[in-house]
Specification:
Shape: flat
Structural class: mainly alpha
Largest sheet: none
Number of strands: 0
Number of helices: 9
Length: 191
Amino acid sequence: MTRHLYCDFLNLQVVGLIIGFLLVSTHIMALAKPVTLQDFLRKFPRHREIGITILAIDFIWAFWLIGNIDLGEFYTWEKPIRILLPVCFLLFIFFVEEFLAVRATGILLLLIACPLLDVAFLRDPVTRLLLPLLAYAWILLGLFWIGMPYLMREQIAWVSRNTMRWRLFSGMGLLYGIALLVCAAAFWGGA
């Protein structure tokens, strides 16, 4: 349904390089400046300005998406959804006081998962499964963070409570990012 949208300007290699670079850079920062990043992450769930910014990105992406996907027999819903999206955006800003950043991040993870799944769909190298694996993890996190946003705060507290745990998770994220970069550069060139 959305494959034609994302695969026209994205391919497996490009997405692998982008996501791999983001994972490597953020996890190197987590290892290099753990105290700074932990302080930021502890404040993140209740940070209203960041929440509004991420929600605006979600709104723009969803508004673009609803105008460009084939809704099939639900094509009559396009106009009401285009009217409802800005209304929901404003309602979120004014009435969702608690954990707006977490909920907006959850929505963003759901939106990001779609191109990851689309570019990896039925591709040849088995290493492409690194992207759908990450996408499904993000979908699961996104759904939980939208429905139970306090979980992000608890997850951040749990990971940052112990230095060894912080290093372990940061190292795992760094290794996953390196694996994505290597696979994208070495195996996904023709995909």
